[in-house]
Amino acid sequence: MIAIVGPTASGKSALALRVAERVGGEIVSADSRQVYRQLSIGTAKPTAAERARVPHHLIDVVDPGERYDVLQYQRDARAALAEIRARGRVALVVGGTGLYVHALLDGLDLAALPHDPQVRARLEAEDPATLHERLRAIDPDAASRVDPRNRRRLVRYLEVATIAGGSVPRARGASVSALRIGLRPPREILIAAIERRVREMAAHGVLDEARALVARGVDPRLPSMSAHGYVHWAAHLKGEIDLETAILRTARDVRAYSRRQMTWFRRDPAIRWFDPTTTDPLPAIVEAAA
């Protein structure tokens, strides 16, 4: 198995396509927003042409109004990996959602973590800032691993910590052997790529996509709509901000997210890092996978 990780706009998808075509592979997405249907441009999903070149899995799994968590991802991704192996193909896990990659490759036994609907309901009544401060007080390490605006994950961490009576426990199972490749371009190049991507989204239909979601009555507070930009595109459509402001705010959010991604992935000593602006990782991956 091969895992290709790194911050958004670092070139993971393009590299994965090249690798898959060379080694006879199929791609398993590890992106927590690409699982949602109807969110394509704003989540930078592979195009129809790219999906025709190489089979992709865990894209367009649920509707935007449905909830989809890391436990469901783990189950679905494990099933996809088993199917790929049964076909004698190489599986490439590709994405920037660190928790998804961690859950799939590092043996987290998520089903073993406790649940309590009453505790969860009480936590869901609080705002994300309060939740994050509470988590920081209980378990600073866990707090550093979660986006302070990600209410769903904050609630889940605190639910588990509350039931456990302390810090967030780590449920461990069997790890998966995988060649782990990370893409880390220089920061200034990544920032330019992020802004270019956001402007391309605005030029190529993300506003129509956001308009359609709003028209369908998709609640902007749902996890699906927390994908970077949708809240700003919706605000522009309502006349609250102009388009340039929506673009700048989206790029700002994605830049901040890319820093959190790197903070997460730096903790994994098994990742072999490449600067794709100076070194093409393809030959090393093909040689290691041979």
Could you outline the blueprint of secondary structure elements for this entry?
Blueprint: E1 2-5, H1 12-23, E2 25-29, H2 48-53, E3 56-57, H3 70-86, E4 90-94, H4 98-105, H5 117-124, H6 128-138, H7 140-144, H8 151-164, E5 179-183, H9 187-203, H10 206-215, H11 230-237, H12 243-265, E6 272-274, H13 282-289
Parallel strand pairs: 1-4, 1-5, 2-3, 2-4, 5-6
How many beta-strand segments? 6
The amount of helix comes to: 40-55%
Derived structural class: alpha/beta
Q: Which radius of gyration do the C-alpha atoms yield?
A: 19 Å
Described by strand count, sense and barrel closure, the largest sheet is: 6 strands, parallel
Count of DSSP-assigned helices: 13
Assembly classification: single chain
What is the CATH architecture assignment of the domain at 187-256? Orthogonal Bundle
Content of β-strand: 5-15%
How does this structure look, described?
With 290 residues, this protein is an alpha/beta fold. Among the domains are: 114-170, Histone, subunit A; 187-256, Crystal structure of tRNA isopentenylpyrophosphate transferase (bh2366) domain (Helix Hairpins, Orthogonal Bundle). The chain has 13 helices and six strands. A six-stranded parallel β-sheet has the order 3-2-4-1-5-6, sandwiched between helices. Strand 2 (25-29), helix 2 (48-53) and strand 3 form a beta-alpha-beta unit. Helix 3 (70-86) crosses helix 4 (98-105), helix 6 (128-138) runs parallel beside helix 8 and helix 10 (206-215) packs across helix 11 (230-237). The relative contact order is 0.17. The mean pLDDT is 89.
